[in-house]
Amino acid sequence: MRALRYHGPKQPLTLDDIPRPTPHDGEVLVKITAAGVCHTELHFVSGLLNLGVAPLTLGHEIVGRVEAVGPGVPASRVGERVIVYYYQGCGRCRHCLVGDENLCDALRAENGFVTDGGFAEYVAVPTRNAVALPASISDEAAAPIGCGVTTAVHAARLARVALGDVVVVYGVGAVGFGLVQVAHLAGARVIAVGRNPRKLTRAAELGADHVIDGSRDDVAAEVRRLTGGRGADVVFELVATKATMQQSIDALAKRGRLVFVGYSEDSLTVHPIRLVIGEVTVTASVGNTLAELEMAVELVASGRVKTVVDRCLPLERHQEAFDLLAKGQLVGRAVLRP
Ligand SMILES: [Zn+2]
Ligand SMILES: [Zn+2]
After folding, report:
1. How far is the CA of 279 from the centre of ligand 1 (A)?
2. Which of 68, 84, 202, 284 could form a disulfide with 62 if both were Cys (CB 3.0 to 4.6 A apart)?
3. Rounded to the nearest whole angstrom, what is the distance from the C-alpha of residue 183 to the centroid of ligand 1?
4. How many helices (H) and strands (E) does the chain have?
């Protein structure tokens, strides 16, 4: 089968022919029809994220149809439309025992990170990782649920976004669009920050009460102005450059929570007094749980959250997706169609 392969940091991805996976005990073979391109893939190629596994098929937003089943799986699952939950926890560590597979101490697999992912014609995953998709969501619209919406659901739950909170979403890619919507649904007043006017317009359509152009405005001052000096109860950092982190810290209200979801080459530098006097919390959110993927599918199926797809491309045109994403020119996801 054809697969887009990663060969290590700073190496070009190549479209290779590799063996089609065989579904083992308890697994289904998924014929992939749509796979979203996440910023994480850029971090793999740049070398910022290096998990030491190569060659590897990238892609962790995976949608397709069950084409075959392994031993022990009912044949009735063949033909089912599914979205893949990309973590396969050990099931035994203290994190897995409470459903937090994203923190598992001994992952069995993680599609698109240390195990082959979605930029290929097929993937084999355990049945419990193949979550049924309702007919109301198309394959391409479903792809960004896998990380974009689900990671937003996880981050918003972890940050305990609540009614009346002021929430800043710093960065309006796919996860940012998800956060704007789930924070809005939770009853927060949402301020979206970005540098691309088309993305900010989309954020406003999705429920952002205010938008700030970070390339032009002093973000922290603008957040203070919009909140009568109070600042933000929660700032989600999806960009995390030196400049944006400073703005994010400066935008926080007393008892505010700065939540890292994204990262860059830069490190956070903050004097403790800045945290102490406002009792400010700095925390982070990684990935999502299986329960949150099911929740995200339901949110999209019921129309309360929308996914945003900029364009669909065949695997051969992956470079176009990566280049536009790196330049910040995509409004929502680019989805590859293997
Ligand atoms: Zn575990
Ligand atoms: Zn992702």
Report:
1. 33
2. 84
3. 29
4. 10, 18
